[in-house]
Amino acid sequence: MFNSKITGLGYFVPENVVTNDDLSKVMDTNDEWIQERTGIKERRHVIKGEDTTMTMGVKAAKIAIDRAGIDKDDIDFIVFATLSPDYYFPGPGVLVQRELGIKTVGAIDVRNQCSGFVYGLSVADQYIKTGMYKNVLVIGSEVHSTGLDFTTRGRGVTVIFGDGAGAAILSREEDTTKGVLSTHLHSEGQHAEELSLISPGMGTRWVTDIIKENDPSDVSYYPYMNGQFVFKNAVVRFSEVIMEGLIANNLAIEDIDLLIPHQANLRISQFIQRKFGLDNDKVFNNIMRYGNTTAASIPIALTEAWEQGKVKEGDLVVLAAFGSGFTWGSVIIRW
Ligand code: UT7
User: Which residues of 289-320 are buried (b: 16+ CB within 10 A; e: fewer)?
Assistant: First the structure.
């Protein structure tokens, strides 16, 4: 048995900065409301035609490959987590294989929304632990901005989400006291519709129905979120799954050197920080600058934390996510 270890990290965000004031020009919202409820000051939106979920993922991946000190031909497998694929099918994993000119290795697409990167790391970790693969590329990337409702009707969702991508190379580690110590995954489909994009194409109503009906008041092609319900579940599940990971490794809250929560809402991160009694320098947040980038949020945050020297050899790093599904999970890493 081996462990897997993160050997390279990279992220990419589009240059186009959209501030809260920018949004208040197209819908009834304001900087004060957004900052107070979510902590977000600005987010990035792609310029249509310039970037897609796949192209941003590729840009992040190139940096991660470079920093891992490997060649693209050393990659044995690709895992791509997103809720906003370029094509409904095929998924973006194969597009990355083509774009990077990687040989014909396997490529899998993970559909676990805000928990996508945690699920993706877990998938990669299993392949490495069993000895099947040596280097796995894991990407989380999202383009939200092209599918949101930029009218007042959509403000409860639209102000929160941003575009971006992050990537990691997971490599074989022979010392099993290092690297990914364990991953913990959960789901509760009972609440599937509480944060969802149900139509089109899911068997209830099809794109062709929507086009035929041509009803301007139809909002079924925009994401729906029961914000308060999601919030309440998030704080409970985040706490549970972090504790589950610590206990599985005979560790305690005091052992955490850095917690990187999925960037859903600054208030959620602060709630967890208070509950666990963690100092400010032990919880990394960047939602202020990027909003919620779903599957990209943890790899972007982890890369920034690493670039800022906040992740050092021997540190205990905890990743935790919660989102649509509901799905949630944690990853316990000895760096
Ligand atoms: O990453 C996946 C997981 N997602 C999450 O974890 C998100 C969890 N939920 C949240 O972050 C919060 O519930 C939100 C930020 C989405 C909303 O904050 P809230 O404090 O729960 O507000 P609310 O939905 O209860 O809305 C309060 C008021 C409403 O007006 P009334 O009914 O009180 O008159 C909304 O219409 O705020 C209004 N509102 C807005 N006002 C200005 C909703 N969105 C906006 C907006 N600007 N953008």
Answer: bbbbbbbbbbbbbbbbbbeeebbeeeebbbbb
